[in-house]
Design brief:
Elements lengths: L2 E4 L3 H10 L5 E6 L4 H10 L5 E6 L4 H11 L7 E6 L2 E7 L5 H8 L3
Parallel strand pairs: 1-3, 2-3
Antiparallel strand pairs: 2-4, 4-5
Amino acid sequence: MANFIEVNSIEKLEKLFEESNEKPVVLFKHSVTCPISSGVYYEVSEVETDVNLVIVQKARDISNEIANKTGIRHESPQAIVLKNGKAVYHASHYDITAEDIQRVESGE
């Protein structure tokens, strides 16, 4: 099961981008009011690693900063895997699968 860690500051986000130089970092943008996002949250909970959770209603500035740093247009739900400060995987809505995240995160 995923270990969800809420990202609640730009400083935490910066640390995650730095951490991605040492190991893959999984980001998940989640909307607490969207039924699609709720279903995808359940899917992402199957990933066996830390999942850094950005709740878009509480952290719009963080969500926007992710879009700025990666060049990936904001959507929610949205999953992104960072390696070496760059997005090596991203998907949104029902295209997000735990299997894909796990494969990219583990380097397969």
